[in-house]
Each structure stands twice: as C-alpha cells, then as structure tokens.
Design goal:
Number of domains: 2
Oligomer: single chain
Helix content: 25-40%
Bound molecules: inosinic acid
CATH superfamily of the largest domain: Adenylosuccinate Synthetase, subunit A, domain 3
Structural class: alpha/beta
Distance between the termini: 5 Å
CATH architecture of the largest domain: Alpha-Beta Complex
CATH topology of the largest domain: Adenylosuccinate Synthetase, Chain A, domain 3
Strand order of the largest sheet: 9-7-5-2-10-1-11-15-19-20
Strand content: 15-25%
Largest sheet: 10 strands, mixed
C-alpha cells in the first residue's frame, strides 16, 4: 500500500473496540497534515509504543505525538476537559508539548462530573441488565446533547457568566433528578464546578475554535486529513449491537457529522482488526471462547482494558461481523493486528457464520437477543509456531500465517494492507497492493 496515496482517510475499528487503531493512526500520521477525532471521549484508549516508550491516550488525537502536525477534536467528541488537561500535562512531563497545534471544536459537548455520576448510578440501578459502560459519562453526556436544554459545549466556556448561569440551572435539575431516581441525596455544588471548569477553559481558550471552518479551509487548501475513529464499529449507536453499544457513531459514517466535513470527503478508509476478536462489557459476542483458549489469548495478548483495566472477553476472529462492519464503513484497506499473539496454537478458528435454534442467520443482524443465542460456525486453519515479533515484511511471514491472512481477506472482502506483529512502530508490515 502506498501510504501517500490514501487521500483523506479514516481509521476505524471493525469489531468492539481495542483493535489497535492508535498504532495505525500513529503509523499514518507522517503522511498527513491534520489528525481529527470525531467521536467518543474518555471511554477510548489509544495505545502507541514508540521506541519502547508506551503512550495511552484517551481524548487527545494520536497526532499530538508527532511533531509539526495539527490535531483537532471535532464537534462529535464528548470532551472531558479536566481529563484532557491531565493528558496534556502527562505528555509535557515526558517532553511532548501540546500547544497551539491542538484545536478543540467550540461545538464539542462537555462531559461534566454529573454525567459520570449519572453513568455510575444508572448502571448500578440496572443490576444484571447493565451495559457495562466505562463509567466515563459518555451516555449521559450525549443524552444531554440530544436534550439540548441541559447541554454545555466547549464554546460556552468562552462566555463565563453565561456558562455559570447555565450550569447552576443544570446542576439544580440534576440534584433533583438523582435524588428522585436513585435516592442520591448528596447535592453537587454548582459554584465549585463552575470555578473548576472555567479555570480549565481559560487554559485552553486559545485552542477552542470553529474546527468545522478549519477543516473545510484545510481541505480547500490541499491539506491531507486523517480521521481517527474511537471505540469500534460494533459499538456504533445505530449500527452496533444495540443496546450494548456506546453513544456515538463509531463507524466511518460518523466522520462527516462528527468532524464537520462533506460526506464525499473520505477517499479511502482503513479498517483495523485483531487477528482474533475481543469485547469488553456486556452484549452478544458469538465467537467468544469461554475456555482455556480464550484465557490463553487474553494472557498472551495482554487483553485488559486501557481505560478501565477490565479483562477483555476473547474469541476467534469473527468474519461475519467484520464483513458487515467493513461494508458499512466502506473500508478499502484492512490492518490486521496482534498476529504474533496467535503463534503456538495447533489450529486457529475463524467464525464464518451464525446458527440459532430457529435456523442459520443470513449475516450480522439488528436483533441483539438473536445474536446472544447465536452459535458460531467455525472453520479451522492450521496454526504456526514461529515467533513473528522479529518479522519485518509480509514476504518473511510463515506460509501458514499468510494463508490465514488470505482467508481473512477473502471472507471480509477487503485486501489486507497492514499486519502488526508487536506493539512497536517497527513491528508493522506494509504490503504493496
Ligand atoms: P460507554 O461508551 O462507556 O458508554 O460504554 C458502552 C459500551 O462500550 C461498554 O460495553 C464499553 O465497554 C464499550 N466501550 C466503549 N468504548 C470502548 C473502547 O474504546 N473499547 C472497547 N470497548 C469500549
């Protein structure tokens, strides 16, 4: 793949998140001028390893790690400002200074402390029916956006009196709501909250701007844009395994609305997948392995959440789900991550279909309860024993590994352009296609 010929592109996960998007965005960044986050918030965790140093970003676009690149947080992001400032500070302590190159949309929604509290209270009240959220306030923040009268945006911080007045009204309402719904009677202090957020706002006053205009001007000026998707396509609010999803448009179709660019902007789209499948939180996962093999994948792949530390559920590669996600986002190139993790299995499964007591499913369907009851149809390929971590080109991969990639490519219907054999930047294989 010629990385310079992708045009404006997007990197999205094709399963339930944690596919390794951060690494791919980092790899591509040098060929782009501007890296843009367009969805999600502190629920995401993008890990990048450069020269043995590990960086885990939740809100900042991965582009901030590359010098001389611009990074933008688009209108579709749920912005946890204090947390983002902590990230900036932590990077500063490691010699990476995020300054003017970061732009924050004045239209981005603010995640407030009451959103996180509501997330926790709501999950606790749901008991066994809980979604298993990251407790980062994502759902309540987007719910308030849709409600409009209880929403605050980054641009509101630039008008302190108005912000304080609005926040006072909202906090009063939330206090009453939490007491009535959850018997939570510890009132939140609007004035202290306003002080904290306005102080944060002052620190990023120069970064908050009309990013929609910035992106449109950048496109017109011939700059190249890279859109960094968060979470994974199957967590998409509309097209994922609803209700076990997050609250934003995680697929590539979220780019126009979440960033503020025309629908025709994307010229390619990179879909990221692990060589197996994982999921955190509740919800259907037909190819899940609740056995020793699943445990082995978890331990070998270090499959514990970047954001919450929760153990991830692990299973064989779900090609049915990947094909659906790739078609939805218009994926042009696949990146298959964690190939090294699968070394040592005698045989490797790929889920090629689902069956239910009512008969086989035609593909990935909207009915979550049907997916919960689905049993996977597995096809098995011979495994390999070779340690792939030192491999530096597709040609060096063992024949069985290449056979496995060929099968993924055929089942998903998109060419594999990138493969990853370890966490470091150098452990990335790019295929000429
Ligand atoms: P929320 O986004 O915190 O509301 O969580 C909703 C569901 O999405 C839960 O199952 C989370 O575990 C899952 N989720 C949200 N973001 C990510 C992610 O970046 N990686 C993996 N799972 C995620």
């Amino acid at each position: 793949m010629d990385l310079t010929r992708l045009g404006h592109t997007c990197v999205v996960g094709l399963h339930w998140g944690d596919e390794g998007k951060g690494k791919i965005v980092d790899l591509l960044t040098e060929h782009f001028d501007l890296v843009v986050r367009y969805n999600g918030g502190g629920n995401a965790g993008h890990t990048v390893q450069i020269a043995g140093e590990k960086f885990a970003l939740h809100l900042l676009p991965v582009g901030v790690l590359s010098p001389n690149k611009m990074a933008a947080i688009g209108t579709g992001v749920a912005l946890d400002l204090p947390r983002m400032l902590e990230e900036i500070q932590a990077l500063g302590a490691r010699g990476i200074h995020v300054g003017d190159s970061l732009r924050i949309s004045d239209r981005a929604q603010l995640v407030m402390p009451y959103h996180k509290r509501q997330d926790q209270l709501s999950e606790a009240a749901l008991g066994n029916a809980k979604i298993g959220t990251t407790a980062r306030g994502i759902g309540p923040c987007y719910a308030d956006k849709m409600l409009r009268s209880t929403a605050l945006r980054a641009g509101d911080l630039l008008r302190p009196d108005e912000f304080r007045e609005k926040l006072t009204r909202i906090v009063e309402l939330k206090n009453r709501l939490f007491a009535a719904l959850y018997d939570d009677r510890e009132p939140m202090d609007a004035s202290a909250m306003a002080d904290e957020y306005l102080a944060c706002g002052e620190r990023v006053r120069g970064n908050i701007c009309d990013t929609t205009r910035l992106l449109l001007d950048s496109i017109a000026g011939g700059k190249r844009l890279l859109f960094e998707g968060a979470n994974g396509t199957l967590l998409d609010i509309d097209h994922g395994t609803f209700p076990y999803v997050t609250s934003s448009t995680t697929s590539a179709i979220g780019v126009p609305a979440g960033a503020g660019v025309p629908a025709s902007t994307l010229q390619s789209c990179v879909g990221v997948l692990k060589a197996y499948t994982t999921r955190v939180g509740a919800g259907p996962f037909p190819s899940e392995l609740r056995d020793e093999i699943g445990d082995t994948i978890r331990e070998r792949g270090h499959e514990y959440g970047t954001t919450t530390g929760r153990p991830r559920r692990c299973g064989w590669f779900d090609a049915v789900a990947a094909r659906y996600s790739a078609a939805l986002s218009g994926i042009t190139h696949l990146a298959v991550m964690h190939l090294d993790t699968l070394a040592g299995f005698e045989r490797i499964g790929i889920c090629t279909g689902y069956t239910t007591p009512e008969g086989p499913l035609s593909g990935f369907v909207a009915d979550c309860s049907l997916l919960e009851r689905a049993t996977p149809v597995f096809e098995f390929l011979p495994g390999w024993d070779e340690d792939l971590r030192q491999v530096r080109s597709f040609e060096e991969l063992p024949a069985r590994t290449r056979q496995y990639l060929d099968r993924i490519e055929a089942l998903v219907g998109v060419p594999v352009a990138i493969a990853s054999v370890g966490p470091d930047r150098t452990q990335t294989l790019i295929r000429s296609i």
